[in-house]
Amino acid sequence: MSGADFLLDPRLQADTQHVVSLPLCEVLLMKDARFAWLILVPRQAGCAEILDLPESARDLLWQEINQVAAVLREVVPCDKLNLGALGNIVRQLHVHVVARREGDAAWPGPVWGSGTATPYSNDELSSLAQGLRQRLSPLSLA
């Protein structure tokens, strides 16, 4: 299915702040100040798994994951980057890129299902999203 049929899952819409649109993916910032956590959502309707994407889109997805991960690590220093495409709750294909710090709220376990999200202040959310957007904009659809 084409990107024209794409609709963002309502849960992703509610839990995130839009950062930028890359050629394949929407880049979203999770609204949980405990972790610097980005989500890439390919604009491909009906995809639940990476293998559901056409080969060319899979290649582009990995390029965008690498680019977003590099920018996240630049903006938010971290000890480890976690990548995941679980989809157990939200079936729409999406890839998590999470900057982890030793001793963070879930360390060394996974962030998924760990505790209760801590909201960013409006200023913190805006500032982090803008910093990410500035570094990712040269790669965007803009």
Give a structural overview.
The protein is α+β, with helices and mostly antiparallel strands and 142 residues long. The protein has a single domain (3-136), classed as HIT family, subunit A (2-Layer Sandwich). Helix content is 30%, strand content 21%. The chain contains three helices and five strands, in the order H-E-E-E-H-E-E-H. It has a five-stranded antiparallel β-sheet. A hairpin with a 3-residue loop joins strand 1 and strand 2 (25-30). The two termini are 23 Å apart. The relative contact order is 0.23. The mean pLDDT is 94. This is HIT domain-containing protein. InterPro entries: HIT-like, HIT-like_sf, HIT_Hint. Residues 38-107 form the HIT domain.
Walk me through the topology:
Elements: H1 10-15, E1 16-21, E2 25-30, E3 36-42, H2 55-75, E4 80-84, E5 95-100, H3 122-136
Helix pairs in contact: 2-3
Question: Nutshell version of this structure?
Answer:
InterPro entries: HIT-like, HIT-like_sf, HIT_Hint. The chain has 3 helices and 5 strands, in the order αβββαββα. It is an alpha+beta fold.
Cα distance, first to last residue? 23 Å
The helix/strand class is alpha+beta
Overall average pLDDT: 94
Biggest sheet, strands in spatial order? 1-2-3-5-4
How many DSSP H or I helices? 3
- How many strand units? 5
Integer-rounded radius of gyration: 14 Å
Strand content range: 15-25%
| CATH uppermost class | Alpha Beta
Number of domains: 1
Kindly report the name of the CATH homologous superfamily. HIT-like
Looking at CATH, which topology would you report?
Answer: HIT family, subunit A
Bulk shape: globular
CATH architecture: 2-Layer Sandwich
Query: What does the main sheet amount to?
Result: 5 strands, antiparallel
H-E order = HEEEHEEH
Helix percentage: 25-40%
Low-confidence stretches: none
GO molecular function: catalytic activity
Domain HIT: 38-107
InterPro entries: HIT-like, HIT-like_sf, HIT_Hint
Pfam family, one: HIT
